Amino acid sequence: MPTIFTHALSGWILSKGLFSNMPKRFWLLSILLPLLPDLDVIAFRFGIPYEHVLGHRGITHSISFAIVTGTLVSFLGFRNLGYTTTRICLLALWFSLLTASHGVLDAMTSGGKGVAFFAPFENSRYFFDFRPIRVSPIRIEVFLGKRGLLTLWSELRWVILPLSLVSGALYLVLNRKRASR
What we know:
It is a single chain. With 181 residues, the protein is mostly helical. The chain has one domain. It is built from seven helices and no strands. It has helices at residues 4-18, 24-32, 42-45, 63-78, 85-106, 140-143, 146-180. It is globular, with a radius of gyration of 17 Å. It starts with a helix and ends with a helix.
């Protein structure tokens, strides 16, 4: 899996490119939702194996989980702001994509057993053919060493820099359109 830093930064970077003048809860959710799927590591404490639908990279990494999460967060967290139903639905789509980004990044790593994108309907685990992101070491003493630095470098190179370029370009294009109105 990529580090928590990369998951969180990815959501924030993408959101900064597309959105402006959003409430603080939007920015907080843009950082937290890409982290949420890894709460499944608690399954290890209960003896649930990795390969189980409730195991690591199982249902919480699925498209279904992302859609349900994004929808609930949008309707529960933003309906009291006077947003139109259309705007809340667009937020639901955005938050679903941010939550799903976690599984997408995990499927691009060099380790683990794959991602159950289609759980709970089908529990097969998948990786992408393109897997340039080094899997993050779990133990802190390993993360603080050479392996951790190599992981951070691969994330910077393959995730943070490309997303920053795309986000920056989107920001420039959208702000130019906003300024011309």
